[in-house]
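help with these tokens:
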Amino acid sequence: MKRIIPIVIFFFLLVLLFPNQAFAVEYSITEARIDAYLQENGDVLVEESFTYGFEGKFNGITREIIPKKGTEINNFEASEKGKALKVERDDYFYKIHRKGSDEVVLVDLSYTIKNGVEVYSDVAQFYWAFFDRSNESTYENLIVAIHPPKETEDVIAFGYDQAYGTEEIMENGTVYFAMNQVPDNTNGDIRVAYEKGLFPAAKASNQPMKAEIIQDKKDLDAQVAAKTERTAFLDQMASIVIPIVGLIMVVLYVSLWKGHVNRKREAERDMDLTRNVPKQRMSLPATIFYTNYKHLPPEAISAALLDLVRKQYVKRIGEDRFQVIHREGALKHEQILIKWLFDLIGENNEFSFEELKQFTKQKKNHGTYRKYQTSWQKAVAEEVNERQLYEDKKKYRISIVLSSIILIPFIFIFAFHGLIFWMVMTILLIGTITLYGFLYHPRTKEGTLIHYEWKACKKRFKILSKEDWRTWAEDDKLRAYIYGLGTKTQPIIKKNEQFAKSFYPSNTSNSEVGAYSTMDISTFIILGAAVSNNFDAAHQSTGASIGAGGAGSGAGAGGGGGGSGAF
């Protein structure tokens, strides 16, 4: 049951948050043909044919037809090879039921657009969107044919977006829009105008429209020509500017790498390799924070408490109980830790694991626990910042990151003009510049020295022998163990445990407690495991997480719209 419940919860959330994706049907629309027969009374009889290729089980197809203002959709029917199919309607959304699995299905649809033709004093037009940005499917090969009531030679025809430039006017006045592949979430309105006399039974407006249609076509052609010209210019510009900016970033990254190598070599020359454990240049919690990518895991609190014991601010007075000896001279984060554990959670200058457990068990205390944890972490970070272990390059880094903002508009400009390659290259370039801004944070001489001293210490510990470790001073052993615990460096922790069992077997009984003088490395290791487990449990019980999500849609420019799908 413990395994099944999380799976059920995950599946429920999947359905709740992503219902379409959870039950998505795998399909493709390989062929699509739409014939619109304009009637003398202004109505339009539409016959559609869709060829679906399904993978897996399916229940049918869907068709959304959104009428434009002043029109309505009537007499919607569906069939397959002349056999009627069940249609379920929800406003403008139609579900055509046809179950199956792993097959190709050809479905015919028919419906009437009431008042689909707009008749004016000098012309009649059919301006329609058979699909729009809300369409969730790609038509791999789409043809739309507009048929006039009678043969005619007086025709104006053009399309927008995906339909632009696809029109072909036949001798009898029929117009074909061979759009070929039409991606999902795109518009493709078609606009066809005929002489008014072809629609004698339609209600006509006294308003003229022919000149406006002709002007709209000229404006559209001019817009497309201007866009084509801009596209050529942008393509040429991008082919020059983006490689130059890319080359500059390569130079900067090489410079960054060289600086890193030089600082590392200088630190290696200055390191005192005779020391078992690096010289303590700042407190162990601050050292852990600095050398652990400015991160303090829950184990760092355990390490900080053990460091208070090592420095004799705190002593152990029982198997799981501690007492403050004094507070004079303690660093800011050490004072916060003492107040947090011994005054807030414990009392009378004493603290125990049981008190920690009882305190974190109550939800009302979780906020206070996190508040003190945050204050302690900030104080540790303050000690590191005060040492000025990084060069002050804040203004330079900010200027580098902000410079990438200049390129952001070009992502959308390139996308709008169909320059997908340059759009992708611009995104990569912005990411590269931003990454450089975050990476360029050179250490000072002291900062580099501290970083590589402890890095070398961890490497040496991996090959350290029992005999060499036995000769170490007790304080070096304690500092190495505390550092390993706080950074979750398992080789240090495990080797200390192995060595301690070999040389201090009598202390594994955990019988001696009290002042620091009795706290050898063996007792420290036993205590460290208990402290770490208890603070990890406290961290887990006071933790929290949040999440969010959203969605959107689109519509056709000329009014109306819709799309195709499956279920």
Q: What stands out?
A: The CA atoms of residues 404 and 430 lie 5 Å apart. The first strand starts at residue 26 and ends at 38.
